[in-house]
């Protein structure tokens, strides 16, 4: 192993590619340590890792060729933004095209809907929905909930002690808030929920986290709470900081009912003339189909939060464009789409989304391209005047994007245009 740091740095500056690859093959240089070893020449580290993988594949995989990985780009990328924060064992990057739907008139202002996707027709369909909404006077949004969650699981000697723990937590919110605040200036613990299963207890902490998505913030605060709580309950054992009642990156009824992240509702009223002229259908058909498909159909599937046509399509595309965690589409895309016919014959459409998990600082939002997209919306970074407002704006844009996508797809389905649209826009 290359034990002396100064000697390793001197050797790295003069070593040939072949010498470094030989060290990798002999396991004298760690596969994941190339960036640190060759710092700051991260592109060379990525190139050598690719060469190592290519050589390995050629010797172990009959189908591998010397062209392996050639179509995966790696040059002209600033890896200094990624190393140590966003990705490990880097071999390049995957370009995803970004389209823009809208702008949509939301709460009296126009906002773009950036969407990174490889699904043809998605951007065009969302754009059609946004155009209809804007032409009808726009949509309104309301924030109905705000709070990231973390739920440890703990064990006590018996049921009596787990019940005592529940009583103590439910009666000492101020103390828990004080412990939480010791770890952050921006986060605030707002509520707790305890569920007992025998002598085990699941404690769901909910906190506002400013403009951050907040998983790290609430995890750090929760950890501090648990360390202090052990002084009050010395016989308590923390089995895991996450006991899955949070619930993160998994479908769950608790997120659907109680929310996680931002709870947003968006509503628009579309005159029957626009429904007829632009969407090529009629209000009664759309209302009836929404009941049969999004409500009854989803109930027949025993769906949890899936009472919509394709909310995840819009959520995933906006998340990828804006540097959000794509795994959180699982709970963020839970939504119910409702449609009614107003007295004047207009279509009243609303989308309710209780668990939109977004942030405008940290994670993928720090990467230049993703940050640029957030700047396009007007919500990049932290809002210093009103902390948390940038993340809330992004959540509202996400909900409005879903509203646009739902309107357009449901119109296409009720008019029988879905297959034709995909054939026109999703095939060469």
Structure write-up:
- There is one protein chain.
- It is built from 16 helices and 11 strands.
- It has helices at 5-14, 17-25, 34-38, 42-60, 122-135, 159-171, 173-181, 215-232, 253-258, 272-277, 283-300, 311-322, 329-332, 368-377, 389-415, 418-425; strands at 98-106, 109-116, 139-150, 153-155, 188-197, 200-208, 237-240, 261-270, 306-307, 335-341, 347-356.
- Helix 12 (311-322) runs antiparallel to helix 15 (389-415).
Uncertain regions: pLDDT < 50 for 5+ in a row? Answer: none
Overall shape: it is globular
Beta strand count: 11
Order of helices and strands: HHHHEEHEEHHEEHEHEHHEHHEEHHH
What share of the residues does DSSP label as strand, in percent?
A: 15-25%
How many helices? The count is 16
N/C terminus separation: 53 Å
Overall average pLDDT: 93
Residue share in helix: 40-55%
Largest sheet geometry: 9 strands, mixed
Given helix and strand content, the structural type is alpha+beta
Taking all Cα atoms into account, the compactness measure Rg is 26 Å
């Amino acid at each position: 192993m290359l034990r002396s740091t100064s000697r390793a740095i001197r050797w790295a500056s003069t070593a040939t590619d072949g010498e470094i690859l030989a060290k990798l093959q002999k396991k004298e240089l760690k596969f994941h340590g190339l960036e640190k070893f060759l710092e700051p020449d991260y592109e060379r580290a990525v190139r050598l890792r690719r060469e190592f993988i290519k050589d390995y594949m050629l010797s172990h995989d009959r189908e591998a060729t010397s062209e392996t990985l050639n179509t995966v780009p790696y040059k002209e990328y600033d890896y200094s933004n990624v190393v140590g924060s966003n990705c490990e064992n880097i071999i390049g990057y995957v370009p995803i095209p970004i389209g823009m739907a809208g702008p949509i008139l939301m709460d009296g202002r126009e906002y773009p809907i950036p969407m990174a996707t490889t699904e043809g027709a998605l951007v065009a369909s969302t754009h059609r929905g946004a155009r209809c909404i804007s032409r009808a006077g726009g949509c309104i949004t309301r924030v109905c909930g705000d709070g990231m969650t973390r739920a440890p699981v703990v064990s006590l000697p018996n049921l009596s002690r787990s019940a005592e723990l529940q009583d103590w937590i439910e009666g000492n919110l101020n103390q828990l808030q004080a412990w939480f605040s010791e770890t952050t200036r921006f986060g605030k613990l707002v509520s707790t929920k305890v569920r007992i299963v025998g002598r085990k207890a699941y404690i769901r902490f909910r906190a506002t986290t400013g403009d951050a998505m907040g998983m790290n913030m609430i995890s750090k605060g929760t950890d501090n709470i648990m360390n202090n709580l052990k002084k009050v309950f010395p016989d308590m054992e923390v089995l895991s900081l996450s006991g899955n009642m949070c619930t993160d990156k998994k479908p769950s009824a608790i997120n659907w009912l109680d929310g996680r992240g931002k709870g947003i509702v968006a509503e628009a009223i579309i005159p029957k003339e626009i429904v007829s002229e632009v969407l090529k259908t009629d209000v009664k058909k759309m209302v009836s189909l929404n009941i049969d498909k999004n409500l009854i159909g989803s109930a027949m599937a025993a769906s949890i939060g899936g009472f919509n046509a394709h909310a995840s399509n819009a959520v995933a595309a906006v998340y990828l464009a804006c540097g959000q965690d794509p795994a959180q589409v699982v709970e963020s895309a839970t939504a119910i789409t409702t449609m009614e016919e107003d007295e004047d014959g207009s279509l009243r459409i609303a989308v309710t989304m209780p668990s939109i998990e977004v942030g405008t600082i940290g994670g993928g939002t720090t990467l230049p391209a993703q940050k640029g997209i957030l700047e396009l919306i007007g919500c990049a970074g932290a809002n210093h005047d009103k902390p948390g407002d940038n993340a809330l704006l992004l959540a509202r844009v996400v909900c409005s994007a879903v509203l646009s996508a739902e309107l357009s797809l449901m119109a296409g389905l009720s008019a029988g245009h879905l297959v034709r649209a995909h054939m026109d826009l999703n095939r060469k």
